[in-house]
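Record type: monomer structure entry
Structure origin: computed from sequence
Chain ID: A
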Amino acid sequence: MGIALVWLRDDLRLDDQPALRAALDRGLRPLPVYIHAPEEEGAWAPGAASQAWRRRSLAALAAGLERRGSRLLLLRGPTLDTLQALAARTGAEAVLWTRRYEPAIEQRDAHIKRSLRQAGLHAESLNGALLFEPWELATRQGDPYRVFTPFWKAARAHWRTPATWEAPPRLPSLDADDLPAGVRLEALLPAPRPGWDAGFWQCFTPGEDGARAALQAFLDGPVHGYAQGRDVLADAGTSRLSPHLHFGEISVRRIAASVLAAGDALAEADRERFLAELGWREFAHHVLHHYPRVPEHNLDPRFDDFPWAAPDAALLDAWRHGRTGVPVVDAGMRQLWQTGWMHNRVRMVVASWLSKHLRQHWLHGARWFWDTLVDADLANNTQGWQWTAGTGADAAPYFRVFNPVAQARRFDPAGDYIARWVPELAGLPVPARFAPWEHPALARRMAPGYPARPQVELAAGRAGALAAFAALRRPRSG
């Protein structure tokens, strides 16, 4: 029985794993291999939080393979050289993997595929991450979509009930004598500084089992009422599946199929709202594939001349560490630092504060999220920041500036989210938690360590953003 190398990357699962299935369908013994080569990911090598998650996810995957009679081989790059050497040593006939869509990775993978085929190997990539490949949907003119609503309308028109595949309980065994020793996980991905990531694992369990448990918990509770509950900051109203999706511990097809299987037990508004959130992820990958410069460049070229404020180290540092003086912004940034995750509604609020009230370039925020989010995904991260900054696809008009106090009052009406993540404000009466500077005597007495004023007055920050946008729209003289 021949061997197929199943090259694993951000698809760390056995359930609904197309590369694994392709190996078995070809009658080959799958040899699962992970090759660590972050330097090959260009300017967006994985951040610290992502690597902390990856370490645990790989350990969970290795355990799952061992239970099935197989093993996970861990190696260090360069990737092409490593795959070629491993194929030569094992006599592998094929190398199979699931596609990624980051620009640097797409280019590298295309080179790897050509090289492996030239060497006589069957090299094949498959879709294991998306419901629709980025090139499957196009406008009537044949162009990529730049607005979500028509993109999602087209996607729903072409919708097929996702077919899923269950991993077999046993996998063909491998002769250890024919394999290299590999690299120990601890050497490949050293453990973070003790205690740095402790809060992450109070909220998440990396690995395939954790992903399936998170999906089941969502189906048992928050999906019912999701259309409204997803915006309530203090409640567990979202799926929290994003890191599991990013690392491929569960397939988007499995999630979509499970939600659709709920049938009439799930209100149509809740089902469609959640599927549309999966759609936003699809749209983000669509845009990234067709416009590969967007991680570092505005999709809307008008903003190439936008008068961003000069980078201010003090402002940025206060924003990163939840010391802006705006409670809901600080709550979100502290939640991010402690848990590696932030509520989606708050992501928009903190991004608007940075890019509009402070007028700091959105890339400063995108880079910080990239390093601190456990679900840091280049497509989603880029789209989220450019959408909020007003520079990207389907962008909110630049003049739409989130009012953080109004957002907190609407989506955290009891002030519970703020009280949890900014505990020095928990003793304030609820109305004072949203804008403590409006209650200066009370704030000085009950929260003396909290900033007395916001980094910038809300009205002044909004006015400055609108003035900058107005100047951008004025035609150049001469």
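Annotation 1: Residues 268-290 form the longest helix (23 residues).
Annotation 2: The domain at 130-162+205-290 is CATH 1.25.40.80 (Serine Threonine Protein Phosphatase 5, Tetratricopeptide repeat).
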